[in-house]
């Protein structure tokens, strides 16, 4: 799909992951590590609420006005997050997201898939479907 600078950075990342992944080369190990790393991301977010308190979660039922259109739905729905991550929590969450990306790249390497191509295809699908690709 071309050799843009982003493509080169993503390929470099996948190559580094390939060089560093020693103990967990089995696809079974990799997919279980993806699950574990996703849990660590979640835990880091939760700790920013429960241990640090830099952000709060205001989780309650969200209402959908009857006259709301798909186009303005994003403006009407809340993230249910209040506050801003402190630098320490941001660093911790970024570290855990990095770990999750490491194992996603390892899975891509094992299956012979370009992570950059996956991102491009997903972006194209989202752009094509527009607001009908709600997730």
Could you please describe the fold and organization of this structure?
The chain has 135 residues and is mainly alpha-helical. The protein is built from 5 helices and 2 strands, in the order ααβαβαα. The chain has helices spanning 5-20, 27-52, 70-76, 87-111, 115-129; strands spanning 55-57, 81-83. A two-stranded antiparallel sheet has the order 1-2. The longest helix is centred in the first third of the chain and has 26 residues, at 27-52. The radius of gyration is 19 Å and the shape is globular.
Output the keywords.
single chain, two-stranded antiparallel ribbon, 135 residues, globular, mainly alpha, 5 helices, Helix Hairpins
What's the architecture of the domain at 7-53 and 86-129, going by CATH? Orthogonal Bundle
Distance between the termini: 26 Å
Main sheet makeup? 2 strands, antiparallel
Rounded mean pLDDT score: 86
At CATH level 3, the topology of the domain at 7-53 and 86-129 is Helix Hairpins
Estimate the helix proportion, in percent: 55-70%
Continuous helix count: 5
